[in-house]
Amino acid sequence: MNDTGDRAFWLHPPHDSRIEPIAVGAPGAGELRVRSRYSAVSRGTETLVYAGGVPASEYERMRAPFQAGALPGPVRHGYANVGVVEAGPDEWLGREVFCLYSHQTRYVVPVDAVVALPADVPPERAVLAANMETAINALWDTAPGIGERITVIGAGVVGALVAGLAASLPGADVELVDIDDRKAPLGSALGLRFRSPAAAAGERDRVIHASGSEAGLAQALTLAGFEATVTEMSWYGAQAPRVPLGGAFHSRRLTLRASQVGGVAPGQRPRWSHHRRLGLAVSLLADARFDALIDAEAPFERLPEVMARLADPHDPTLCQRIRYD
């Protein structure tokens, strides 16, 4: 029985989701109870889970940090929650925090599972922290340098965050490439060039692919210069995309590298914990440029219909924010 009136959002793959009551108790020693203010929906991972597109071999590796349930059955999934601490140690009371938690009105977590928001990071923008963490890892894996020519293919939230961070490198020449011209304003908002695939520059030093499409990966390989690095960020679930490794792939001596947020990039792993990386991600959201990525908001009660809309690949939403207050 739920005496608190709290509710949680559950995915029932394929293509169903529900808001259900949940009991949230008092925090124990070393724990916090957080009241959600905002969360965000991942257009990649959560819609793939919603659609039933996760292969059985990845059910465990795809678990969200505080997931309840297990695939292929119903799961409480999600990992971008911003809330305010309402119970726990005195020094935490009233503080706004980010947590890799799902869509739920209240929840209890250990103190070390949250990152307190700095004063210059508004809670409305902090929902991007999980995606920012992924972008940080991608740049660590790619290791771009000062003055390099960098192309990011795929102007979704993660691709745009990667491009925005790369544009801050001194002397870097950054292009963000996408087939959807409606995303062109992201170029000026982030301080870089937006290009259609046909207009994208070649001979790039680093190419980062985040479009989730075969065509995008194929173009990433064609844009890379001699001995350049191509970083693949897209995860295709149960799909088996074709990778064009013929042509000039070998003669140009290209490096094709995978990047995924689950493991800290090898070069940083000896010194960086997941919690330290998440703290960096939150702090980097002091940059108001990234407000351009949040282009939709809906109340928690509408999450089932929102998830159905976001699962449509033609829906143009970048970051869908969910409001609880």
From TrEMBL:
Keywords: Metal-binding, Oxidoreductase, Zinc. The keyword Translocase does not apply. It comes from the Bacteria. InterPro entries: GroES-like_sf, NAD(P)-bd_dom_sf. Its cofactor is Zn(2+). The keyword Metal-binding applies. SUPFAM superfamilies: GroES-like, NAD(P)-binding Rossmann-fold domains. CDD domains: 2-desacetyl-2-hydroxyethyl_bacteriochlorophyllide_like. GO terms for molecular function: metal ion binding; oxidoreductase activity. PANTHER family: D-GULOSIDE 3-DEHYDROGENASE, NAD-DEPENDENT ALCOHOL DEHYDROGENASE. Belongs to the zinc-containing alcohol dehydrogenase family. This is Dehydrogenase. It comes from Salinisphaera orenii YIM 95161.
